[in-house]
Amino acid sequence: MGYNIDVVNWRLNMDSSGHNSSALFVGDNLALDFINTAYGVGDNKQDLLTDDASVTKWLQQAQVASRRSDQAKSRGLLKAALELRDIARELVTMRHAGKWADPSALNRYLSLGSYHLVLRWSKGDEPAVTNQEAASDNVEADLLPVAEALAQLLAEANFEKVRKCECDECTLLFYDRTKAGRRRWCSMAMCGNRMKVAAYRARSKA
Hints:
This protein is of the alpha+beta class and 206 residues long. Helices cover 36% and strands 16% of the residues. The strands form 4 sheets. The chain has a two-stranded antiparallel sheet with strand order 1-2. The chain has a two-stranded antiparallel sheet with strand order 3-4. Strands 5-6 form a two-stranded antiparallel ribbon.
């Protein structure tokens, strides 16, 4: 599956209570963005996943939500999402450290995938065979795109390019896809400018 979303790095969205909630898509990777749903340090810690609806909302923003129409069938989605996020953080941490980690918990999510071939043939076009994901009543299957992205990241990514923002007060992870390979910040508009201003002030005082 692809993860190709044209979004600004830092988006503000209104929740149902009318408050702003930060939806962060700065990781340039679906799995890293999922880990980044919990961010910040100390009193500034934030968690975007607080109930089943918030998980569904995030999946929709990431454009990987299922077509589940019955909200009652999404009960338990938060519990599964928090579990998968912990799994993702642990596996990425261990992979980054060059250590082994047990993949069995992730494989349980990956096993929820079910695909079958579909022949698509529109008038005026040649027939083509594509994969079609089968619907599942298991709420954990809603998180399958995240699990697949995580598996691909762990197996295929150059982990020298998987980094944490260099701002001490920021915990966000990202995959450096820049040509020069010198990305340092989760977002230049946020941490990048803040750290540059701090460095300028320090030089001025000196």
